Amino acid sequence: DAKTTQPPSMDCAEGRAANLPCNHSTISGNEYVYWYRQIHSQGPQYIIHGLKNNETNEMASLIITEDRKSSTLILPHATLRDTAVYYCIVRGSGGGADGLTFGKGTHLIIQP
Amino acid sequence: KAGVTQTPRYLIKTRGQQVTLSCSPISGHRSVSWYQQTPGQGLQFLFEYFSETQRNKGNFPGRFSGRQFSNSRSEMNVSTLELGDSALYLCASSFLEAGNSPLHFGNGTRLTVT
Fold this sequence. Notes:
Largest sheet of chain A: 5 strands, mixed
Helix content of chain B: under 10%
Distance between the termini of chain A: 35 Å
Strand order of the largest sheet of chain A: 1-9-8-3-4
Number of strands of chain A: 9
Oligomer: heterodimer
Distance between the termini of chain B: 37 Å
Radius of gyration of chain B: 13 Å
Helix content of chain A: under 10%
Order of helices and strands of chain A: EEEEEEEEE
Shape of chain A: globular
Largest sheet of chain B: 7 strands, mixed
Largest interface: A-B, 27 and 26 residues
Order of helices and strands of chain B: EEEEEEEEEEE
Shape of chain B: globular
Radius of gyration of chain A: 13 Å
């Protein structure tokens, strides 16, 4: 089973920040948090990942709580093209199939 | 850098046949993993190869098999196809097999079994 929990769907207005939560309460010390998104009929696209510090790249920001049990992906200025299913997974340095297991994700709908 | 390439993009087969799907990873990536995606079950992990060795396997029957070649290219094979095997098959590559190494996905092969 997936080691993460996400809300099944969320709405966000175009131009606003989209904040997508993920719970990973059983995360261990060597596991990274990864975010991907999938637009219909395409493969999942890598967005960002982090271990314990907050991370930012050209696509998004990742905020990881101090206890690392949850994280939030932030899309700062959502556009209609950000409508997609967003997946949060954890992936450890030791490998293993668990780190390759995706849950159902969050269907983010950007409203015009 | 070229992304992950999967061929063919679409495939139609009949029940009982077998099929081979191909995946070319990003240059320099040594890990390749395969996924099956259906509307009902979502993304399900099939198996992962690293340096030509299968490292992990998901909960799929033995009809599903794969291999990885010395150039890191990978193939997966499904024998005795069933209607339920109709799905989008996705391949992902990464530099390492775990940890601080993002997966990069191809756009998949859509298999239809009639």
